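To assess whether ligand presence alters the predicted conformation, the chain was also submitted together with nicotinamide-adenine-dinucleotide. Input:
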Amino acid sequence: MQKKIIRFGVIGCGLMGKEFASSAARWCHLTHIDSEPRIVAVCDANPAATGWFQDNLASVEATYTDYKEMLANPTIDAIYCAVPHNLHAEIYIDIIESGKHLLGEKPFGIDQAANKLIMEAIDRNPHVIVRCSSEFPFFPGVQQIVGWVGENKFGKIIEVEAGFWHSSDLDPTKTINWKRRIATNGEYGCMGDLGMHVLHLPMRFGWKPNSVRALLSKIVRERPDGKGEMVPCETWDNAILACEVDTGDQQFPMVLSTKRIAPGHANTWFIRIMGTEFSAEFTTKNPKQVRSLPYKTGGVQSWHITDTPYKSAYETLTGGIFEFGFSDSILQMWAAFCDELTHRSKMAQPFHCATPEEAASSHHIFTAALESNRTGQTISLHWEE
Ligand SMILES: NC(=O)c1ccc[n+]([C@@H]2O[C@H](COP(=O)([O-])OP(=O)(O)OC[C@H]3O[C@@H](n4cnc5c(N)ncnc54)[C@H](O)[C@@H]3O)[C@@H](O)[C@H]2O)c1
């Protein structure tokens, strides 16, 4: 199949920059896609960070330490940007103004003011496609639930719970990094770090809360700085947001949680939707399984646990009996982005990557959550249509 080659530059060659490179390197795993990312340039402020890309990707033609020089390269079509949150506004705006398409990492700005500046740049450049990285909805089990929501299968929604939990900060001897500092991660703390993953589907489903009551906690208050001293650990470790949703025809509570300290959890992303006619649940703890409970008046209430086959949004070599995992979800997200760059609204399947508007909605909720935690009050949220 003739494929449209999309020439990518990567800004930020850390953890996530490498994940994209790994997906691009196994693009042959996708069997029916007519576009392909080619990483031709990489940029990191730390020159040592680009070494891995040069060693492993034959496609890299140029390396940079100054992202502005990379943006001046006219042969680059699109950018993946994965840098600390304090740099999102400046770098994303420059990318968008350069006319290159952008898949940017969440949370799309360190705070709501930064996010607003990014949104204004997007408004000024409507021809540029901008999407926000968020991969978990591409698990086949989650796609199954997205389908059920689209079919209105749930009856009256009783409640929704969604969360992203891990325990990587339970160890108090773990050295501090930029994600534990307000200057680089932002005042949102764990919400800015993990929250877009949790809000992606609720925002896609139109479940924007009318109000939020937040409980934010700091559990480990200082950490080693790696140089023999202890330094303050400034950001929120865990957040529980109790929201009220009213969509006009549905009113229900929605509990969202992001936890960096959840003992026993490695990278647990989950969503649970309870309804009067149907309930469903998916968690990455059991990534093959979807639980569902159909209910008819007076009938039996029993959970059905189904192994979902490897039936991804974009077809792959992997047979249906096998398991789907984290790196598969990243590959699928990238397939959706490249498909959208190539075909715009005529994508091969309908589930597109998270939009800037969905990311902006997450900022609206996190900002209200900070106020709620500060005042101890429930904060009303108003949404512009
Ligand atoms: N989608 C996901 O599952 C996921 C997972 C982890 C992190 N993230 C997001 O990815 C982004 C980066 O996180 P990470 O974990 O990859 O961080 P990281 O610290 O591993 O990598 C960030 C890189 O950015 C580089 N950098 C810093 N300033 C720069 C500049 N001015 N120009 C170019 N490069 C610069 C750093 O040197 C570093 O190599 C964040 O927005 C984070 O929230 C997303």
